[in-house]
Amino acid sequence: MSDEKTNFHVGDWIVHSRYGLGKIEGRDVKELGGKKKNYFKVGFSGGFYWLPNSNVDALYIRPIASEKEVKSALKILKENYEELPKNHKDRQKQIQECLKGVSLKDKMKLIRDLSARKKEYSLNFKENEILARLKENFLKEWQICCGKEMDVLEEKLEEMIHDSVAV
Question: Do the bridges between strand 47-52 and strand 13-16 make them parallel or antiparallel, or are there none, so unpaired?
Fold first, then answer.
């Protein structure tokens, strides 16, 4: 167990593709199938989950973004949006593919593209829900990395989205 590498520590904020933003609250050893493994206990808005220390470099988890990374992601809103597929099933497939990963830039592109689609057409219930969750997760991460008030950041994000899809 001591040979496992970890880049995270108790107190670190991380982003999980499924659970969103979470904070590492502790460490523990769990026995599964007769084998002992080290785990991080990660708290998130819906409770907590156990993250194997040996899995911290997986594609579904990343450290919280820096202010520089957030600013870079926000620049995506100034780029032309990419039209999502007209066919519902193709659109859902593309959206779900993006949601599997943790790339901040990919999530911002999806916020931009869903927002543009919402202006031109309408989003179905699930797409509206996904857009709201993406914005909420981004705002939480932005708030933690820069320490500003949530309502100020939310207003700024909505203004930037409005300006990007107003073209």
Answer: unpaired
Q: Which residues pair with 44 in a beta bridge?
A: 22, 47
Q: CA 152 to CA 42: how far, in whole Å?
A: 28
Local structure of residue 53 (DSSP, 8 states): G
φ, ψ dihedrals at 83, nearest 5°: -65, 130
Using pLDDT thresholds of 50, 70 and 90, give the confidence band for residue 54. Answer: confident
pLDDT for 84 beyond 90: yes
> What is the spatial order of strands in the sheet that 47-52 belongs to?
47-52, 35-44, 20-32, 13-16, 61-63
On the question of pLDDT at 3 being above 60, the answer is: no
Q: The dihedral of CA 154, 157, 163, 165: what is its sign?
A: negative
Q: From the CB of residue 18, how many other CB atoms can be counted at a distance below 10 Å?
A: 11
Terminus-to-terminus CA distance in the chain, angstroms? 55
